[in-house]
Design goal:
Mean pLDDT: 81
Oligomer: single chain
Structural class: mainly beta
Distance between the termini: 53 Å
Strand content: 35-45%
Helix content: under 10%
Shape: globular
Length: 206
């Protein structure tokens, strides 16, 4: 191929790159004065509010202003801990917030946080909360995976079973979970690979 044609081909290949790069624009909707802490988790709820979980507090952005939520001593309707790891939402529009002090549910109607005080629920660090198609909550922790059924008030803790290596969690540290289109629950553990949950037989498989 002649040099002139090669040069024209090179121009065609290279010219779109800076154009694409220029199209990417980032804009901060709020400043570090609004949210001074390190953000860890984000969630936009059904009403359009943006929730930002940080290392020291929970923030809500409505498009104009930022509101801060914190743990208030002696107030049981405040956050249980200011370190916010994860935020999710159930079918009723309630927010579920995983903190370093357990799980709380935000009641938007009353504008307060309700702590899940069941003795079987993790009161320590909650790393991730996933709501499945049955409206069950799957809570990832350093001590296994918890399944919480609010309608029944039941809690189940899944841990590795040494005698059933191929039919249990691969590690007790669970980072996150995900439900696929076939309603299987995929779980990410400390060992770096996923397992899935069988809803009928309560089995995990590598």
């Amino acid at each position: 191929m002649p040099f002139r044609q090669l040069f024209q081909l090179w121009l065609l290949l290279m010219l779109p790159l800076p154009l694409c790069g220029q199209a990417l624009q980032f804009e901060a909707p709020f400043t570090t004065e609004d949210i001074p802490q390190i953000p860890i988790s984000l969630h936009q709820d059904h009403a359009g509010f943006l929730w930002v979980g940080t290392t020291d507090g929970l923030y809500r952005y409505d498009g104009r202003e930022v509101r801060e939520f914190r743990k208030v001593p002696q107030d049981t309707f405040s956050l249980s801990n200011n370190y916010i790891n994860t935020i999710s939402e159930d079918k009723a529009g309630n927010l579920w917030v995983g903190t370093n002090g357990g799980v709380v549910r935000y009641n938007a109607l009353l504008e307060r946080f309700e702590r899940i005080t069941d003795s079987a629920m993790p009161q320590a660090r909650s790393l991730d909360i996933m709501v499945d198609h049955k409206d069950h909550r799957w809570i990832s922790t350093y001590n296994g995976l918890f399944q919480y059924k609010p309608a029944e008030g039941s809690v189940r803790n899944f841990l590795p079973a040494p005698t059933q290596k191929h039919f249990s969690l691969s590690h007790k540290t669970v980072w996150s979970s995900f439900e696929d289109s076939k309603h299987r629950i995929w779980v990410a553990t400390h060992l770096g690979f996923t397992v899935f949950y069988n809803d009928d037989q309560y089995q995990f498989r590598a």
